[in-house]
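Technical note accompanying the year-one report. For the benefit of new consortium partners, we illustrate the data format agreed upon in the data management plan: each record pairs a sequence with a structure-token string. No post-processing was applied to the example shown here.
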Amino acid sequence: MKNMSKKISIQKKKRWLEMFEQGQTEVQIARKTGHDPRTIVKGIEEASKERRLASTEAEMLRNALFKHQDQLTGLLKNIMEMLVLPPYDLKLREESKGILAPIPLTGAILKHIPKEQMVLDIYDEEKLEWELLKEHLKQDKLWGYIKQWHDAILDHMWARWQFKLTIQSEFVNNADLISPNSEDEKRFETATSELVDLFFDVVTQRILGIRNETDVGKAIDFKMSGFNDKEVSRQKLVAIFDSLPGTKEANRVKSTFVALADITKLAKKQTNEIMLLNMITGKCRVCRRLGL
């Protein structure tokens, strides 16, 4: 028999392993191939080890890819949950004069920056997974839709805030008519503040198509009870309330809401279509590191 070669290829050793697994003994394989039986035994062991390592590596790669896909799919789920319309009864609170307090939304927070309008911070945008998903879906329409949704929700929330400030201005400008002889200024301020919130909530919901059966007249009577010239106050407050749906600020709330609803629908549909594939197509820098 031939002496053991120092450079027997792994392909040959794999062939010996196949022959062995098919039922041939090491001696039979040695006779057929012209190698020493000890060489055959060692070669079979090496080929078997190589296969186990390859199988383990393949399993690790498969698990890494599954985890990577799960992370990106989880991000898509977060995006889907984020793409919602703000609640109709969302409370807007003034943090300082004319400045809206931060509003937590699903997966984001809305902030009003002094001397500017509003900004929307999307929490997931700061994560590495956001960049990786954009690499996977580089040419996808989803990113354009998210940008449009981002701008639309800012426009709408700005419109809501300007509408509430308009209501506050109406109260301030007509303070002498609402309660010309009020002796309890603190209680008057509380009552009018609560009425501003009420007017804003009721009118906003009604112009957005939400049924609201609040009896505003009774609410005015209750809030203004105990003040002087109650009837004069009531008439002026009712007049203010009745005028609100026709203001340009109210119309702006409605038009921006319609635009937001339209782009939200498109963005959710695109996100859902991607998720229905049950895998994220394309590649990213992580995929390339994994050898894909």
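Partners are asked to follow this layout when depositing records. The chain has two domains: 10-73, 83-289.
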